[in-house]
Specification:
The chain has 76 residues and is of the alpha+beta class. Helix content is 30%, strand content 39%. The protein has 1 helix and 5 strands, in the order βββββα. Strands 1-2-3-4-5 form a 5-stranded antiparallel beta sheet, covered by helices on one side. It is globular, with a radius of gyration of 12 Å.
Length: 76
């Protein structure tokens, strides 16, 4: 499984999050408050605060990996 964060525009505070090349949501960055909001195409939003961008990406990757594995197991 490949999870990527792709900038929607240069210098934008919005990343598109993909899993295996499929868009799963948007990752909104507010560096001034160290807040990061993941808005999925489907499901609950995830707010991460008081972390760096790299830490937020790692935490979100871990969470998405677990959710993806759970959904795959439920579908089987």
């Amino acid at each position: 499984m490949k999870i990527e964060f792709k900038k929607s525009e240069p210098h934008a505070n919005l990343d598109v999050v993909t899993i295996n090349e499929a868009i799963v949501g948007e990752f909104i960055t507010d560096v001034s408050t160290q807040s990061f909001l993941f808005v999925p195409a489907k499901g609950d939003r995830i707010l991460l605060s008081r972390v760096t961008y790299d830490e937020a990406c790692k935490l979100l990757r871990d969470e998405l990996s677990q959710l993806y594995a759970h959904r795959c197991a439920m579908a089987a």
